[in-house]
Write a structure and sequence with these properties.
Oligomer: heterodimer
Largest sheet of chain A: 5 strands, mixed, barrel
Order of helices and strands of chain B: EHEHEHEHHHHEEEEHEHHHHEE
Helix content of chain B: 25-40%
Distance between the termini of chain A: 26 Å
Strand order of the largest sheet of chain B: 3-2-4-7-1-8-11-10-9
Radius of gyration of chain A: 15 Å
Largest sheet of chain B: 9 strands, mixed
Shape of chain B: globular
Order of helices and strands of chain A: EEEEHEEEE
Helix content of chain A: under 10%
Largest interface: A-B, 34 and 34 residues
Number of strands of chain B: 11
Number of strands of chain A: 8
CATH architecture of the domain at 2-113 and 208-217 in chain B: 3-Layer(aba) Sandwich
Distance between the termini of chain B: 12 Å
Number of helices of chain B: 12
Amino acid sequence: MTILDWTQSGDGIAYQTCSACQSVWYFHRSFCPDCGKGEPVIRQASGAGTVHARTLVARAPTEELRAHAPYLILLVDAEEGFRLMAHGDPALQIGDKVRARFTDLAGRKIPYFEKI
Amino acid sequence: MSFITGVGLTPFGKHPGKGTLDLMSEAAAAALVDAHLERRGIDGLVCGYSTTMPHLMLSTVFAEHFGLKPQYAHAIQLGGATGFAMAMLAHHLVESGVAKNILVVAGENRLTGQSRDSAIQTLAQVGHPVYEVPLGATIPAYYGLLASRYMREYGSSELDFAELAVLMRRHACMHPGAQFREPITTDAVLASKPIASPLKLLDCCPVSDGGAAFVISRERTNEFSVRIRGTGQAHTHQHVSAAPSLTRFGAAASVAKACDAAGIKPRDADYAAIYDSFTITLTILLEEIGLAPRGGAGKLARDGHFNHDGKLPLNTHGGLLSYGHCGVGGAMAHLVETHKQLTGRAGNRQAKKASLALLHGDGGVLSSHVSLIVSSS
């Protein structure tokens, strides 16, 4: 199965796990940050999670992004046990159960969460 | 043992036409005069970085420019924690006999040396280049995320945050070098322009030009007797997405190390210098260190607890929020002000009693923590 990863323009969220110590993490690398074992397993996340933190960004960093402001940036706790940053519906609140879809932001694919 | 034998600080704000080396030189010259030292008396140099003058070897560029021939020199980079990390390093270097008098210096024309968009984009790079920055995240957004979670966990309100902005401005109004010297009210903070909720413009420190320096020495060079008694660090993550917790960071662990080395408890301190890049930064640090109860920093500020004449004077120069933030020199200003307080030279801002200071700085998104205990004796 091909793993879809928004950072590679795919409609999905990928994460990694360690086959030795069962650690789960998000930022991809070639080894486990807990035990150091190589060849981590890359997995496809379901896209479901819970809002952990939120901020509505009014002051965007670039001219290109200013057209999209204000936009909601979230930290979402994915049900698989890792945390990711994403965009979401501005009405979302901490604790909301959410699911990801994928959208374009200034020419890049990004995850966008909506309430389940 | 080490002594802080001299300090130098430029006004913060706009210094049109002045570059990184100019601002570093201005602060360094003032610190040498304060320490009663000539250039030839400096045998060690530790400097920060400058986003407007990125260089592989800023310390030796500065040494050549300013006229130093140190036996030990380099720059270090630890974001907002750099200033106190340099002080910690210099303390250990003089203790171990590497150098006798170390000049610690930083400066940057961060405000007039680049566009505001450019400054915001440079700073956003403390975020993850693949997983965070492409989402249009900014430094205020990273801290806005922390603030949203902190409010949920501990019941802090936007008004509590505003009290800290008002406090820093109140102090800045008494310092001629501060960037912002117009009094503000909590209403003004709450009504200021939204940046990244719940943070508004007046919850955020400004971008400034400025420079700061100090000399750390093995022996006294003048009548001052201000010693670094203990140091500590803790580093828990770099990126907010990877933070182990959004409500507990490395601040308490870092302070505990510094306090253990000094043989004191945090509450023994009678002066506090705490990093305040945003009102939420100051809130979290004060409360995690234990200088305020969880959710209680704003109320203490409102009650005058942190005033220059209060029970625990805090950032009496106005902090990053109102004295200003020129990068590495920003937190160094906290140490300069601490020195002024501990040597009785803070003028109209002088605390009734300031003899044992707790300083804490953070870099990144509450990622890197450095603590210092400094006393006069």
